[in-house]
């Protein structure tokens, strides 16, 4: 064969191949159009039955942690149903038998459901009590092709919400379920707060679209972007979350406590790096770190000291005369150790955690000044975290006939008012960052149509104390954090404060049960994180110095190692 003949033969084969490829794609396109037309014509509620492989309900966005690890996603599943009136009695056993082999549903159950539905005149009957897996649905689709069974067998894609990381993010994520109106929606946590956003086609008003940019490589390709095109990247780091929950579990078991809660956050950005609780939460549980308020106890003395210093009521050189008790309106306030310490400085007031001197500072400020500072620090109001539900805590403001100076004195050391773990951590973050009250948040960025949009709400809520005041209070906290006169974490300067709070009852404070807390930041200068730990109702240990402080220590040590902050780094 000549060279020219070879070329002609090659061209002929290429032409035939192109025609075949064209016919294939034309047929495929025609089939897609036909299925779409069937879907529009034969939707649920229409006289002409249902569609094979009907359109799914709205996809819901994927959620990952700050490093891109999967936290929540939709897993595709199928709802299998049939149109009883369109199945001939002579074909019923054969269809039911084939479906049973493919799905594992007993044949007799399928037959009974179809017969019962036909007898009642129902147009549709769901054949599977639970949805089929993606693979099983594809097998059914192959065995019952649309050409023959479009009006007989119905496969409806129903995404199942899956929560990864073995429950580690429960309480933070919230859950996706049915509401009272029979509609699917998000509840609690991030699922509740960002419910509208996570459904394709909706948006969050606070997001700043002008800040959109290409999705960073660390997030793209693995889980993001999702089919919903509305995804969330959390501030939470699964490794820090794992550390915190693990140490809480050890502490709750060791001290035979009722519960443990902790929050770790970046004091400058408001990023919540971890929010954990033990015993483990269910997806349907609101997170107690934001939903449960309690009397915080002496950790609140940090706020009292900050208010007294910032208002000029006291100075760092102020000397107090501590007698061990003070009487206000016929009621006595005593120090925890039930003794007086004589002449003491503000540093010693914090180190020995003296209730009496905290009360004196509040009384010297007066209700207008004292409660103004409590308001500045966010007491009695929600932190505006992007989770639900959040408790505002409780403050008995100086109004009404039932208010007295004794209330203010008790508030000065964390009694007679309620706060959440997150509220306290947020307030202390203002000390750590130089005086700014930040808005804590668990979402780092939105992913919209494949683009990365950083968290769009203003981080800084307000300047609440002077920078110099924050520096002085940090110094006081470094003194208070020396448990037994020793550094809490050798090699690191810790700023912190303990709190051992008796639990109020209808008959006064319970003399046998307490909640213990420790809040602090490390390193004291230019801190990498703030951590608030609360161990509730421990049956062993009792004091925060024995229970909460060691728990903070182990959590902080592991986070410092994970963050690669070297020993000796004091700022």
Model description:
This protein has 571 residues and is α+β, with helices and mostly antiparallel strands. It has a domain at 238-442 and 459-563: 3-Layer(aba) Sandwich (Beta-lactamase). It has 16 helices and 24 strands. The protein has a 7-stranded mixed beta sheet, with no helix packed on it. A 5-stranded antiparallel beta sheet has the order 13-12-24-23-22, sandwiched between helices. Strands 3, 4, 5 and 6 form a 4-stranded antiparallel beta sheet that branches. A hairpin with a 6-residue loop joins strand 12 and strand 13. The longest helix is centred in the N-terminal third of the chain and has 39 residues, at 3-41. The chain is elongated, with a radius of gyration of 32 Å. The termini are far apart.
Summarize this entry quickly:
The protein has 571 residues and is of the alpha+beta class.
